[in-house]
Amino acid sequence: MKKAIIDTVRGAMTVEFFEKDTPITVKNFTDLASKGFYDGLKFHRVIPDFVLQAGCPQGTGVGGPGYTIPCETSGENQVHDKGVLSMAHRGKDTGGSQFFICHNRSNTRHLDRVHTAFGKVVSGLEVLDEIKQGDVINSIKIIES
Questions:
Q1: What's 2-144's CATH class?
Q2: Where do the structural domains in the chain lie, given as residue ranges?
C-alpha cells in the first residue's frame, strides 16, 4: 500500500491512497510528488468548511502539469468525507496536478462521483484545519509499504 506524507508549513498529514479503485490518479499524483513537482507550491484556494486546494505551479488555480488524466469515479471510496484527497478539474477528464482535501462531509456531497477521490488523510487531520490560503507544501514524500 502506498502512502504519502504531505509536509506543510503547518505540520504533516499522512495519506493512504485508494490504489485499487483509482490506479491512474494515484500513479499520476505519486509520480509528480516523487519528482518534487509539489515542493514549494501554495495552497492557492482555502474555503472554510469546504476544501483546501493545491497543485497549481502558477499558484493561481489555472496551471497544471501540461497533460490531463481521466476521471476514475466508478469504483468504491468515492465519498468526499473529511480528509479525503480528490482530483480537481475543470470538467470531466481534465485533471492533472491540482488536488483538494475536504474539510467536512456536509458541504461536499455534490462532489461524489464527479471528482476522483483517490486517498484519505489518516494521520495529522488537525493540520487540515490549520492550513490557510497561501501556505506552502514543503514536500510530499511517497512511502511504499
A1: mainly beta
A2: 2-144
